Amino acid sequence: MHDKDARMEPGMAVGKGQPYRPPSLRARVYSQLESSPGSQLSPVNKVVVAVILASVMLGIAGTEPAVQSSLGLALPIAELTFGAFFFVELALRTWAAGVRPEYAGPWGVFRYLTQPLSIVDILVIASLLAPFFGPEFAVLRLLRVVRLIALAKFGRYSSALHRLLRAFARRRYELLMSLVIACLVFLIAATGMYAIEGNVQPEAFGSIPRALWWALTTLTTVGYGDVYPVTPLGRMFAGLMAVAGIGLIAMPTGILAAAFTEMGQRGDAADAAIYTDTGTEDYENYDGTT
Fold it and tell me: Does residue 96 share a domain with residue 186?
């Protein structure tokens, strides 16, 4: 039998034969701010997501001088409004997290606030002062989008996120080997172009480090066109490297595709086992349901 009944907040239904007691206010706030794994986002979290997106879009648009001049005082007022909202959200999350034993008490609050996502929240709230120090600090405002990942992992994308991480973990050695091969091909391409075009175009191919820029844009199939070979031998070599670039991109793609196929064939049983092993189901009834 799980020990979740002993860890649940007092004032909640704990099992058959016991009278139902409504959940406490803290437990209700917790159930709204921290959605259970496999469930949809709560109405409160949906509002938080909408405010996050609005703040990020405002932060992006606010870097445009024309937008700054047209909005005037509305821009800093909106920033302060978002900051107050995020501050209240963080305060409520910290307070509601006290229903969990590891976050109860002063040390529990400190432990919660030193989590990576809580640190991001604190940095984003502090970044509201960024416009007073210069526009380059306003980029910190975009860190707020990290909260979207924290919310999505509790919702419908939790299974997909686990499969993605497990696919990377299962194929980490193959992916590392493909990275080593890619670095080797980059070096071969830069060295070859340095030997062929170095005397003809010393500014572009006068050294292997200079030729590495061409190798990067060619093998990744970007091809900016700012640097290109002019000799027949150089163009022939560049064509071979362009074909090699296609295989370079396809190699990690095939490795990950095989991993995803394998994970899909295993079904949802593995995901259910993950939740059971980590005990994430212990708090799924914090809304007072059994």
Answer: no
